[in-house]
Amino acid sequence: MTNNKLKLYGFNNLTKALSFNIYDICYTKTEQDRKKYIEYIDEQYNSERLTKILTDVTNIIGASVLNVAKQDYDPQGASVTLLISEEEVPLYVLDPSCNRGVLTPTRENIVGHLDKSHVTVHTYPESHPQNDISTFRVDIDVATCGTISPVKALNYLIGSFDSDIITIDYRVRGFTRDIDGEKHFIDHPINSIQNFIEKETINRYDLIDMNIYQSNIFHTKMKIKDLNLDNYLFEINEENLNEEERDEIIEKLNKEMTEIFYGINVSDV
To answer: Which residues pair with 223 in a beta bridge?
Structure first.
């Protein structure tokens, strides 16, 4: 694959899909702390803020918003879906159900038609009383068709959340033809998702790659290296803990992160 722009016959039919999952881990000692943490997360990452993040992602990858649908859930969580196009769609051809991201009080329910691409986000706050740990998960999916690629937004997404564990999947599907009729199954150079992550960010994480190059499937997992305890305490200050308490909390946090990172349950010794 050369860096020269491909001269295509017809439309670029490649579909590029990015799935981005982040986990924020927090120590919540009491039931009241866990409740407050969930309330805090719901307030910090409500559908309005998530809509702003996804709109920024759309701008970064060079697409245009056709429609926005968003919802906050009871008791917790939020979802946002953006329908986007590679190029701006003129008003006279835009489906009347699309709102171009302008939400009004009279539009409580929005139904849109997909043009070429979409961006979605779902949040999942979670806790369990037996391990004193609360976890906030964000799932973001960006699917594009054509020349634009969602991996351009990776650094912005990582910086938009308190990301302790990150799981990223990227896949290019389909093919496009050049003017000579030759099929091209990918239109940009890549051998790892890490190619698109800033070096400063990479240095803060332990990373594992699992790639299937012949199928254009790329997978990267990231786990924060340095655990600054104060960043993981909710309603508590580290200075108020004794050494034994600090060690116990760090052990619980490390266990939670290890289980999520490797996708296995770790037995207590």
So the answer is: 165, 206
CB neighbours (10 Å) of residue 210?
Answer: 10
Options 122, 127, 134, 160, the catalytic residue:
122
Catalytic residue list contains 117: yes
122 is a catalytic site residue: yes
Give the chain's radius of gyration (CA, Å). Answer: 21
**Backbone region of residue 214 per phi and psi (left: phi > 0; alpha: psi in -120 to 50; beta: other values):** alpha
- Per-residue pLDDT tens digits for 43-79: 888 888 888 888 898 888 888 887 788 787 776 777 7
Angle (CA) 219-216-172 rounded to 5° is: 95
The conformational region for residue 32 under phi > 0 = left, psi -120 to 50 = alpha, else beta, is: alpha
Residue 259 backbone dihedrals phi, psi, to 5 degrees: -65, -40
Phi, psi of 114 (to 5 degrees): -75, 130
pLDDT of residue 250: 93
Across residues 106-125, what is the average pLDDT?
Answer: 57
- Cα–Cα distance list, 262 to 36, 59, 204, 237 (Å): 29, 33, 18, 30
Token pair for 250: 């760090």
Sole residue written with tokens 């719901």? 42
| Residue 128 annotated among the catalytic residues of the structure | no
**What pLDDT is stored for residue 108 in this prediction?**
34
Catalytic residue among 98, 118, 145, 160: 145
List 26, 85, 98, 117, catalytic entry: 117
| 203-260 tens-digit pLDDT | 999 999 999 999 999 999 999 998 899 899 988 888 889 999 999 999 999 999 999 9
pLDDT of residue 11: 73
Tell me which amino acid residue 81 is.
T
